[in-house]
Amino acid sequence: MSALIVTGALGSFGRVATRWLSARGDAEVHAVDVRDAAEVPRGVEYHRLDVRKRGFEDLVRRVRPRAVVHLAMVRRFGFDAAQRHRINFEGTAKVFEVGRRLGVPKMVFCSRATVYGALPDQPQFVSEEHPPSAGRTFPEMQDLVAADLYASQMLWRFGDVETALLRPVNVLGPTVRTLLNRYLGRRRVFTVMGYDPMQQVLHEDDLGLAFEHALAPGVRGVFNVTGPGEVPLSVLIDEAGARAVPLPESVIGAIRGRLGFPEIPRGALEYLKFPCTVDGSRFARETGFEPRRSLVETLRSVPRVARRGAAT
């Protein structure tokens, strides 16, 4: 049986990938993370390793995986900026370097559609050719943008490695802890008065399905991954079961993380003002990907227990 390695396996996306890929039963899944082992799916072999250290290279050499799914990224913005850069950019570079040098035939890297930025002059539906521009208004995302650009370079620098770079839209679900999931998990959320941008969401199960499609032989390139449709932010909040409180942007700056409202970075407010909607037709066309969860199912998948009060 062939082997797969999933890095960042105890993170939100890592748990989704490990659970989904191990359930397929056609590959031996090795889960890698720096944290103490939590519960992992039956049959998955867990390795407590830092991808930047020698132990990870030894694992790749020993198991000879047919693919590495790299998800070892810090996406929380409360982390020290230097540490985020070391993990997100330097860690990504190391994983690709080890994979290339040891002959791993396929690398899958999961970025985010949010790297394009939420900008007033953005096209309605952004294609993969559009440059990631989130750093213009959201400097905390620079390390994520840098990792994304590094992975995309692998496509033309090393043609012998089949690289698939995924840029999924906002992922919602009962187990993921994305910024949007935490935002919607509150009983009431602020919105920027006068703005109601379109939003795209993807159920965590469909993210797992996207990983499966990306791992198929011959799939190579940069791909936006979209869900079952688009809705205005107001509809997203209502369907998730929260209550929207429109406020002037100046007021939001003073109450973020207070009075029961969610804490989000200043740069994230741009995504509550302007759309960051993408065109996912390339991935659908080249892989046959089609989300299985409906828009209503996806919008209502945010855990309701998080709405009892305190931030998580």
Helical segment count: 10
pLDDT < 50 runs, ≥5 residues: 305-312
Would you give the CATH topology of the domain at 2-176 and 202-227 and 278-292?
Rossmann fold
- Radius of gyration, taken over Cα atoms and rounded to an integer in Å: 19 Å
Overall geometry comes to globular
Question: What does the largest sheet look like?
Answer: 7 strands, parallel
Cα(first) to Cα(last) distance is 40 Å
Name of the level-1 CATH class of the domain at 2-176 and 202-227 and 278-292: Alpha Beta
CATH architecture of the domain at 2-176 and 202-227 and 278-292: 3-Layer(aba) Sandwich
**Share of residues in strands:** 15-25%
- Spatial ordering of strands, largest sheet: 3-2-1-4-5-6-10
Number of strands: 12
Mean pLDDT: 90
Alpha-beta classification: alpha/beta
Overall helicity: 25-40%
Give, in order, the helices and strands. Answer: EHEEHEHEHEEHEEHEEHEHHH
Determine the CATH superfamily of the domain at 2-176 and 202-227 and 278-292.
NAD(P)-binding Rossmann-like Domain
In short:
The chain is an alpha/beta fold and 312 residues long.
